[in-house]
Amino acid sequence: MARIALIVFGIIVLLVGGLVAAASFIPAETYKAEIEKAVKQQTGRQLRIEGDVGITFLPALGVEAEAVRFANAEWGGKPDMVSMDAMQVSLKILPLLSGNVELDRFVLVRPEIHLEVNRQGTPNWQFKPAQEAAEAPASPSTDTGGDETPSEGGAALNDIRLGEIAIENGVASYKDARSGAAYEITEINTVLNLPSLDRQMVFDGSAVWNGDTIELDLTADRPRALIAGGETPFTLSLATPKITSGFDGTVTQADTPKLAGTMNVDIPSVRALAAWAGSPLAEGDGFGPFTIKGTVSATPEVFDFSDAALSFDEMEGKGALNVNLKGQRPKLTGKLDLETINTNVYMAGGASASGGDAPASGTPGGNAGGGSAASSSASGWSDAPIDMSGLKAVDADLALSAQKILVQNITIGESVLGVKLNGGVLTADLSKLALYEGAGKAKVTLNGAQATPALNATFDISNIAAYPLLRDAAEFERLEGTGAMNVSVQTRGKSQKQMISALSGNGSVNFANGAIKGINVAQLLRNVLSGALSGWNAGGTQDTDFSELGGTFTIQNGILSNQDFLLLSPLARVSGAGTVNLPQQTLSYRVEPKLAATLEGQGGDAGAKGIEVPIIIEGPWANPKFRPDLKAILSDPEGAVNTIKDLKDGGGKKLLEGLIGKPAGDGESGGDSGGETSGDKPNVEDAIKGLFGR
């Protein structure tokens, strides 16, 4: 037996030695010609090996070729589809006898790969074999006897061992003539290590894309299971200046590869990432930092996060999220609980992100004299462009809950809403809405799909605090109270100014137990009867308390019209009608204060006996002019006198005290410091005649 083995070994040595000797006598040009001919037959393209070719047989079958070039399609933009400085391949021979493949070395040195698609949609990697290859007779060595099935008796593949598998300083590019898309990756350096199909595979790679270095590392614990379509533990790490991501779980190599495990994604700026990837978003403040981590089940096109924690543009939340990349735009579906939803970051030219942080309590703050209103009037509405095109970046169907929602300067409290975003149209349906101490429901639609943004909104709120709402919504700081609001408005425009000018809609408001800041109706009457006055200080420094205040309104092209204004308070009934020009921030109003000798307020008689002194209010709402409607007053002065004289139970005295102040010695000074303080009680008839200049 030993003798037989020795003979077999001797034969092998002779055969190998013969191959080595034969190889040394075969000119290298012969190898080149045969290789180039075979490639031409199979692809129809020319392969040129312009450098040296070396072949080794022991201890491994090796080929090294220098200056290799593979021709591009005839219509290609570059002469070569693939070129490289050198290609080195080394395959161990002896392991093949036992059914194992050990690729000792496969290295591409400075390869350049150029992929293209022409206007007809034909890729340059679609090859057409040469005609002579199709007409050539079948080689006897490859004839399988027609339709006869090839023998399956060959040795099965037991294992694969890969040594140095690498790309050194490569370049890859892609161009699509149909869309104009063009990409290039440079400085490609990769190393793949596979000791065995039953041992961990490790891949490390780096490349440069659009000026940024991308680093990719991955491991697969059981490559054999992966090849067989099974599952294996898998890790992945991606790091670039624009995005970092990590995954730890399992991968299944089925018809559709699947990942399952934990994943995290950290994007410093979605806007910068989109620009880096070749799909820049419109300029604006939104689409900044984004992070998400949680349990994920994913395919190449669908990511399903559960137990997810995310942060987007500093809006943080928890819940479940599905990201679908199949369509024209990514689509987000899920249920999230968020701390804050800030719509302002997606409305360039709108309020600042912090603009909604004003306190949402019902306690007045700042200058009751209307400083904010003056500032608004001085500056007018903003002409800065409002750009909602960022809404077209993704589609969404989300069930959200939020502790705070910011829209322009308005702060909405704890809310539950459904959000649908499709093609740049955002619809927020608030089934639960907390707004400035009130509660109700609302629906808001922002349309960023068109060149001119549009807004539709409906609100139905009760128990709302008037002061902070009007301060934040219109910079108006003159009204306090608790009430109800039913509003439906719509507008469109490319700036805040255009939107205010195009505003239309209708609604009703009703407030109770409040005050008009800085205006005393009685003092206003006394002051305005002495001549036209300007500014809210015409009403003095005191307030007018009321039990009820409200009315209905319509808006057309930014002009608010109200015909049924009514205020009820002790000693005063005020009705009115007029318009508010929102674009110009001006008022044109006629109010009819009726001073009445009754302390009944809310629910009292709006037609109680008293004296009416109609007042015209006109001009900028920050600094309006007040003047009496003399024609109405002088039309019946005797009637006014008789009305006062007819009041019972000291009503006339109370009314006069409201108009001209309490007499000295009656205790506290009534009205204001400008009231009469005569020691004698006023004569009703003389006082009224004097008041009206008679």
Helical percentage: 10-25%
Helices, by number, come to 13
Strand content: 35-45%
Which structural class fits the helix and strand makeup? alpha+beta
Protein name: AsmA family protein
Pfam families: AsmA
Organism: Tepidicaulis marinus
Descriptive labels:
single chain; 694 residues; alpha+beta; 3 domains; 33-stranded mixed beta sheet; AsmA; AsmA family protein; AsmA-related
Short description:
The chain has 13 helices and 33 strands.
Description of the molecule:
This protein is an alpha+beta fold and 694 residues long. It contains 13 helices and 33 strands. It has a 33-stranded mixed sheet that branches. Strand 32 (615-620) and strand 33 (625-628) form a beta hairpin. The longest helix has 24 residues, at 2-25. The protein is elongated and about 130 Å long. The termini are far apart.
Ordered list of secondary-structure elements with their pairings:
Elements: H1 2-25, H2 28-43, E1 47-49, E2 53-56, E3 60-71, E4 80-92, E5 100-109, E6 112-117, H3 131-135, E7 159-176, E8 182-194, E9 201-209, E10 212-220, H4 223-227, E11 231-239, E12 244-252, E13 258-267, H5 270-276, E14 290-298, E15 302-312, E16 315-324, E17 331-342, H6 371-379, E18 395-407, E19 410-412, E20 415-422, E21 425-435, E22 438-447, E23 454-465, H7 466-474, E24 479-492, H8 496-501, E25 504-516, H9 521-529, E26 533-534, E27 544-556, E28 559-569, E29 572-581, E30 586-596, E31 610-612, E32 615-620, E33 625-628, H10 630-634, H11 637-646, H12 651-660, H13 684-691
Parallel strand pairs: 5-7, 6-7, 17-18
Antiparallel strand pairs: 1-3, 2-3, 3-4, 4-5, 4-6, 7-8, 8-9, 9-10, 10-11, 11-12, 12-13, 13-14, 14-15, 15-16, 16-17, 18-19, 18-20, 20-21, 21-22, 22-23, 23-24, 24-25, 25-27, 26-33, 27-28, 28-29, 29-30, 30-31, 30-32, 32-33
Region (Disordered): 129-155, 353-376, 657-694
Pfam families: AsmA
Protein name: AsmA family protein
